Each structure stands twice: as structure tokens, then as C-alpha cells.
């Protein structure tokens, strides 16, 4: 109907005149005057006239729609993700070589081949331990009546099981709370002019280091603990870590200038310098140090999380191992007595155990999320103690990597740990000036001592001799405190 109405001559002529009018005006110019004779008049179909009129009709409606619909807002989280997308992509795409097997891997994850080999070896050890258990002899009958217990002896149904690749040792643990008494044997006031950061014992001497440039050696066999030697100018900027070998023939000191100096005990127990280790000649490149039992190997940490092992018995003291972690500052390190394992603690709360024989990471230990300032292997090498800003001491089984206990009781950061010779007791020192002795059987604190409220930077047990068991503490008080067990001579 609409088409019929619009098809009348009057309406079509008026519409055609409205559309072609401007074009005729332009054709009135001299240049365009011949064109109307060549080109026929332009006729616009009715359908196109409707299309041309749509934008003008909907112009106001479209603007109102745009104003009514709110713009999509981008959250801060999305913006942050977009900003960090490049860094995350770099972490995923960046490659390096595994320090153990040499295969190419992604930089931010552990080597899949090494992890698989660790799982396989752990399964083999477990199977071997199970088949090595001996069956009960014929005299062990389940229907036997229980024997009467002597009430004078502490008996506990719980056991502490220590497992290694060769045998399974089960030793009873006492649940009764026992305390030990330690007496202050002697306190050496102003042993150094500045804070004492590290102490390390030998069978007959105690070596101390501070923010000063000298190392000092004290005779622990004499009743008055005299100063017998001073190594002047050992580290110009001060020394922050010390380590001695169990045989007492070698020592290592790490200074703030980034150097590690190796010392040997000469004739008459005089300590002399045997050489130094400089890694990349950067301050702080080498931080914590530890020596093997015979002093043949030295382990060290770096500011970027690497753990290096050095061969001290070879000329030039070359680096023989380099382990990589997640890049967090390596704050502490320790070597097991047999030299098979290296443990490290880091600023991000990570703790690791490495197998020096295979050159691979054995365990990445869970449990602590704050900086770890001290790690220590037990004398038998079955347990690893780790402590730091979390104010607890975590005990790990070296064979399985599982956390077996938490020792809680400190109210401040723990800076130092030390095992006694038998592994029955663990010594710890904290920033509130308190030192504690822990029983590994009962998992309880058996003694607490505090000479002052100033930070204790380092603690250590002295090797047991004819005298009773003793331990030493030192720190911000600039003094050295010696304690001995109350029982005995």
C-alpha cells in the first residue's frame, strides 16, 4: 500500500526534485554544464531513501544508549596481572641447566629427572629396610603374660625410630619431664671490643670472631680460660662466621669483605693461615661456612642462594660442587660428619638437603616460612635441626625429609644451634639473651640460662673431656659465658 501511494507522479516528482536539486545547482557551474546532457537524471530508489534517513532518526537514541550503559571497569588485580605478565612469561620461558644432571630445565622449577630419581631411590631404600627386618624368634609368643615392670625405671610405650639405608634402630623415649642443671663456670667480660658474631671449638681451644679485625683463641683446658693467641688483621672489616673441623686441625673464617680464610693448627697449637678463598671477589658472595670432620671440604652459601663446596686438600682449593636453590639469601649451612650431606637455610624460609655423592638435591624441607638462621646435623647424621625467625626449632629426618618434631619455647629469633657429642641434647641461643638446652628424647626444654637480655649470636658445645659437659655462649654483650653440667667434676 505504501509503495502504491508513493508511486503517484506528484509525490515521486517532489522527492526526485528534493534529492536532485543540490546536484543541479552544482551542475550550473561552467565546468559541469555539459554533463547533464551526457548523464541522465539520477533517480534514487525508495528503499535507499529509507536507509539514508535511518542515521538521522536514530542519532539521538544511540547517544542516549551509550550514556545509559556504564563503561566496563578494570579491577586493580587485573591491571596488576597485566603489568606482571611479562615477568611471569619470563619465568616460564627462561631456561637453565640443572646443576646436578646438566639437563635443560625451566629456571623456576626443580629438575624433573632429579626429582624422579629421588623418589625412586627413596622407594628402593624403603623396600630394602622392610626386607632387612628380622622375624621374631620362637621365644616371642603373643600369648606370653606380660612381665611385671620395675616402677623405679621410666618406661614409655612410644619409641623414637631413626631409619637409614642400612639398619633400623629403635630406642625408647622417656615421657617424664627431666631437668638438667648447668652452672656458670666463667664469664669473660669484654672478650672483644664489638659484638661477638661467631665462636668455634676444638678439643683444647675456643676461637672467637667479632666485628673487629682480629680472631682470638682461648685455652679451654685451663681453669681461668686464658687468651693464648690473637690473629691480628685476619679480616679488615670484621668476621661474621667461623667453622672448625671435628679433628681440631683446621678452621675457616668468613669476613665482611667477602673472603674466606683457611687456618691450620701448627706446632704448639699455634694457628697459621693456609690460604684464602675469594668467589667472584664480591662482598657478601660467601656468607656462611661449614667444614667437614677432617677439614678436607668446605661448604659455603651466597647472597643469591647458591651453595658451593670447595676441596681444601687440593692445591688452589677448587670449587667441586655448586647447588642451586630458588635464589633466596643463603643464611646458614652445615655438613654432616661423614661428609655425605650438605644442608642450607635461606631467607625465604626454605631449607634444603643435598647429597654430595650424587651432586643432587635430596630434599626440599617444609615447615618454616620465615628466615632460617641456623641448621645443624646431629652427630649420627640422622636428624637435621633448623631454626630462625619463626621462634621454633624444627627437626627433620634426613633419610625421608619429613618433619618429625617442633621444639617451641623461645620467645625471640633463634640465631644459633649446636648438638652435643652424643646427640642427646640440642643447644640454642636467641635474640632475647636466652640459651636453652633441649632433650631430643622428650622433645622438651631441660634448661634455660640468661646472663643478659642482649642478643646471643652464637652457641656451641665444647668437646667432652675428663671434665663434665660444657657449653659456651657469646653475643652482643661482648663477653663469653661458659657453663658446665652440675653433676661431675
TrEMBL record:
Alphabetized UniProt keyword annotations: Repeat, Ribonucleoprotein, Ribosomal protein, WD repeat
Domain of life (superkingdom): Eukaryota
InterPro entries: Ribosomal_bL32 (IPR002677), Ribosomal_zn-bd (IPR011332), SKI8 (IPR051510), WD40/YVTN_repeat-like_dom_sf (IPR015943), WD40_repeat_CS (IPR019775), WD40_repeat_dom_sf (IPR036322), WD40_rpt (IPR001680)
PROSITE patterns: WD_REPEATS_1 (PS00678), WD_REPEATS_2 (PS50082), WD_REPEATS_REGION (PS50294)
A GO BP annotation: translation
GO cellular component: large ribosomal subunit; nucleus
WD repeats: 279-314, 407-448
Pfam families: Ribosomal_L32p, WD40
Annotated CDD domains: WD40
UniProt GO MF annotations: structural constituent of ribosome
Keyword field contains tRNA processing: no
Similarity comment: family membership: Belongs to the bacterial ribosomal protein bL32 family.
PANTHER family (alphabetical): SUPERKILLER COMPLEX PROTEIN 8, WD REPEAT-CONTAINING PROTEIN 61
NCBIfam families per UniProt: rpmF_bact
Name assigned to this protein: WD40 repeat-like protein
Organism for this UniProt entry: Pseudovirgaria hyperparasitica
